[in-house]
Design brief:
Structural class: mainly alpha
Helix content: over 70%
Number of strands: 0
Radius of gyration: 20 Å
Strand content: under 5%
Largest sheet: none
Number of helices: 5
Amino acid sequence: SDVSSAQMALWYYHRWNIESYFKLMKAGGQELEHWQQESAPAILKRLLVASMAAAVVWRLQRNTSPEAEELKKVLTQLSGKSRKRNKPPTAGILLSGLFVLLQILDYLDSMGGNDLNQITKLRSLLKKCLQNFVKNV
């Protein structure tokens, strides 16, 4: 009874943000509950990287530029997650897609050379493997 309703609403608002953050860390491709780091510094490093990714995604969600809208579409497709028609993608969807995109870019960088050539080679490899799979089924 000593706390005003405005103060209580503010506390609830902050609590909701914290809960949303933990939900994102558990379901947005981070799988916080399955982390296997054993030392405090290792946990801190992973938490910092995950938090930076979450901040990037939250900022992207609020960005309405044409480039941001295009990136949201790409990340949504890469995430493999579904959403309701005409609803903006959730932070979890964007975060999952972001990590897929970063893995793809990291792989292409590790291959070296022209990215377009590498994508063409990967597409050809996939096509050959799938053709062999279909023949054997």
